[in-house]
Amino acid sequence: MIRSTVVICAHNEEDYIEECLQSILNQTSPPELVILVADRCTDHTVSIAKRQLEKTRSTIIEKSVSTWRNSISENLQLGLEKAVGDVLVVVDADMTVPSGLLEALLSDLNGYAVASALVRTDSSKGTLNRLVGLWELTYHFAPLGEQPRGGARAISIKALKSAGGFRDVYAWESDLDNRLRKLGFKVKLDRRVTVLHRRTMTLARSMAYQIQAGRARRQLGISAQRTILHSLVRLRPFVIYGYFKNGTSR
Fold it and tell me: Cα Rg for the chain, rounded, in angstroms?
């Protein structure tokens, strides 16, 4: 039997954490351990999680300072250090997952080091969310199609440790996938499983996501030509801004 640890990284997620945790607790193949990394939370995220996880095998790590530039990467490494079992399952705090998520992704790891679910935006959260949902159809025309994302993925702990764990980078999932592929491991996007990204989108948040994506592409060594083509095809102009203006890695 494959044993898994679910890690959720949260910064002020009181609007989403309860439903996220409930969807994890409802799994047909329950995790051995649930870890919540509460990153400098100033709202009720921790109290909600403590109440919900009270009778489960769980750990809440309350982080008061960040020592890495990219806090999410540091949070995941903290979760990895406390994990038990064979598989680390990363779930974003603003997502809800189907009850068969773990069962499906864990079965994928028979031939893969990483298996990711398909992430879709919750269109019920407003007009911009509906537009983002339509925009996600541009994956069909993107040069590389849709790539595995970090929001809901299962990772072999043995493979993860052989790759050196998580690193202090913008796009931790792409960085990890690239390192694993170089070691001969395979990575899978399981289109049979869909998770729901429930966060209410705003123009400011959408711009910030694009700028961060541009920084990540520069740090990953993706060429300017490919980045521009990707951004034009997928209607993401601020990716170009992020790449050229804010893309310098340390």
Answer: 17
Q: Are residues 181 and 211 in the same domain?
A: no
Burial string for 114-151 (b: 16+ CB within 10 Å, else e) reads bbbbbbebbbebeebbeebbeebeeeeeeeeeeebbbb
3-state secondary structure at position 78: helix
The number of residues making up the chain comes to 250
Handedness of CA 202, 207, 208, 210 (dihedral sign): positive
pTM score: 0.84
* Helix/strand/coil for 67: coil
CB 169 within 8 A of CB 68: no
**245 and 193 housed in the same domain:** no
Per the structure, the count of domains in the chain is: 2
Strands 87-91, 95-96: pairing kind: unpaired
Note whether 49 and 89 are same-domain residues.
Answer: yes
Both 94 and 169 in one domain: the answer is yes
Phi, psi dihedral angles at 82 (to 5 degrees)? -100, -5
Mind listing the pLDDT tens digit for each residue in 199-219?
A: 888 888 778 877 888 888 888
Segments of the chain with pLDDT less than 50: 143-145, 247-250
- Contact, 139 vs 146, CB < 8 A? yes
Q: Indicate if 30 and 148 belong to the same structural domain.
A: yes
Query: Same domain, yes or no, for 152 and 178?
Result: yes
What is the domain range of residue 237?
Answer: 202-250
Residues 144 and 226 in one domain: no
Helix (H, G, I), strand (E, B) or coil at 121: strand
